[in-house]
Amino acid sequence: MTFDVNEFERSPLVREPVTGKVKHCQLKAVCCDAMGRNFANVSFFWTFGEVKQMGFNDFVNDAVDKEHELYQEMESNWVKLEDIIGASYTICCSRDEFKKRQMLNELPSGGKGGSVKFCRTKFYRTSMKTGGERKIESLTSSGKGDKYDKLMKEAGIW
Prior knowledge:
globular; 37% strand; 158 residues; alpha+beta; SH3 type barrels
């Protein structure tokens, strides 16, 4: 199972270290420490119930798909690569767009052990403030030339 760093909609399913729950997440970086242990830096997605339990009510309204909608935290966490247990899709779209794609059978398959969810909202878990709307960020050239751009894309950095 392979993933690209900052790949936007297909992402790992990770066993969250604190609770042990399996969660959708977005992969931000990977590293190997001085002792040879491998880690991944991820941003977790949280369910409506989890967000409500944390006390975030200012951006959670009644027009929520409690079964499929997730909320992306702005903070990131380091997890062991062994904690990655599957793959999932977290589509970046509105609730109506997700329902339309679901009805037309246009959603990707859930991946190994995963399911397809959607996320339109980001939040700061530590400060309890909204992080705005989740958007697909376009990756652009650094201005260092085509060879550099190609290398960065192949390395999964762009």
